[in-house]
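Team,

Forwarding the record for the chain on the shared tracking sheet. I've put the sequence and predicted structure together so nobody has to dig through attachments.
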Amino acid sequence: MSTPTPFSISMHAADNVAIIANDGGLPAGTVLSSGQVLVDHVPQAHKVALVDIPEGGVIRRYNVVIGYALRPIPAGSWVHEKLVQMPDARSLEGLPISTVKPPVQAPLEGYTFQGYRNADGSVGTRNILAITQTVQCVAGVTDFAVQRIKAELLPKYPNVDDVVALAHTYGCGVAIDAPDAVIPIRTVRNLSLNPNFGGEVMVVSLGCEKLQPDRLLPPGSFPIVDERESALDVVCLQDEAHVGFMSMVESILRQAEQHLQRLNARRRETVPASELVVGVQCGGSDAFSGFTANPAVGFCTDLLVRAGASVMFSEVTEVRDGIDQLTSRASTPEVAEAMIREMAWYDNYLNKGRVDRSANTTPGNKKGGLSNIVEKAMGSIVKSGSAPITGVLAPGEKLQQKGLTYAATPASDFICGTLQLAAGMNLHVFTTGRGTPYGLAACPVIKVATRTDLARRWHDLMDVNAGRIAEGCATIEGMGWELFQLMLDVASGKKKTWAEQWKLHNALVLFNPAPVT
């Protein structure tokens, strides 16, 4: 059996560490192409010292100081998290503001997909009936009803893709008038209005909850799809007309069928690529994320912006250490200041909880070669590409503009996905190095593997193998174009993602800083 060619990757000429790319890593004694002899066995995706690093010396990756050596590290040594002291967080004072002015790229014209045009001008990539819930108490009844709708009604309406219940744990037992209560309330409201739901708003309420239907969706906040039914469509379980469990379920089925009839009459039409609203996110990240999948997504982000589309990147907790890179790309000082405010909120949040930002890097991240949140942040930010950042979205708000937007969300996969859906996302791109079967019921999720080994093992969960970049079989640019075309095909319904085929749908999770009562 032949010995594999040692393969290590540096991100910048100034870096003093490189990443081992070989499956299974490389044993001690291996000679790298740069001439270093490995002192230790270095696992795949982990760092090797390219030079002798003295105690207290900088450890540099991405041409960024990701830490300091806790003891002398000889060249060829495995550089893991126990040898790295994390640097202090970058101050939010004196940041570069709108200093980067990338050259204007030519617009991408002529790219289209087949989507569902809504009355409010938005476009869906799927045609789904969503049933909104005002409170967790109704979740069991609604779920039972949804299963019956799928089994008994949905086969009669072949143009409807699915029926989903927008379940959450909010609605009662909270300080409903607290200042921060606006966040979960507007999140549920805007989830109900996602473009993939066709403007059909149906609500299941208990009756006694604090979050009453007219507070969740006041007049004027939802479209009127039928002038004969101008009021909000609500099934209230405590209504005296309901006698027993099955009468509640039958009421939900009767109302759902009216919405299904209207959704079934809808047809896809050709729309420009500018109607895409794409959320980009990563989870289960590893050290490959920053040089395979995320750069490819970043290149694709630039293509989408050139095509006039809307792209959101997120995760306050994962970009805080690269705030200077973000403020320098802000299109205006106001955009930069909005990002700084979001980072300051995060710093204050950590202080209140008496924790520091080092808690972000998970055991899986570390097993995948990420020593700390600084290194993780550098790999996360590249998903945003190089376009100017033209807007900042607070949690739960609805996106109102084209171009590249920073959507301030926590790093939790499910909270981030929920908030991007509330913002109006109709297509999701999710990169992973360690692997996660993440999916969303409300919109297609394209899963991008950072490593060929993961793509091979999870062949029926990963849609794209960006690990080919590390192997020299593909380029970042070529992979970016491949992903762009796949997005158009998935948005058109020509292709289904693996998450859709298996119906892998994670629960929605609200970001709720309001106090519990």
